[in-house]
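Subject line: Sequence and fold of a protein, written as structure tokens
Area: Proteins and the way their chains fold up in space.
Start of record: The labelled sequence and token lines come straight after this line.
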Amino acid sequence: MASSSSSSTFSVIGSDVKIKGDVEASADLHVDGTIEGDIKCSSLVQGETSAIAGGIIAETARLAGKVNGSIRARELVILRSAQIHGDVQYEALTIEQGAQVDGRFAHGTKANEAVKTTAKPAQPAGDEPKSEGDEPKLGLVSN
């Protein structure tokens, strides 16, 4: 693979590394260390010993450590060792048994619209819309 494409590269933040500040990568990112700041990358893999205090935006994310912040990923895998404290927005979601998630889940484009407009979920006709200060609510349905 002698391609110069960014999809063939990756960066590693080792377990001995602590970063204070935002991290943005055009390549895939593997984090074993500690980050205090937001992360934006194509693909994120988080090791079990890693801690992230900040928001995560990624096309794909595989989380195994601690995250204290919101997560937005098209494909999200939360492993059993993960401890997530924050809202999660996704299109495809896998959560292993034993994972800890403390936050709200929102799926796909509906979640994007709710974030952009702070609109509340659909109501029967005739109901008064609530003021902008009210948060949208999300219900989970299992099949």
Observations:
- The two ends are 43 Å apart (CA to CA).
- Confidence is low (pLDDT under 50) at residues 1-7, 111-133.
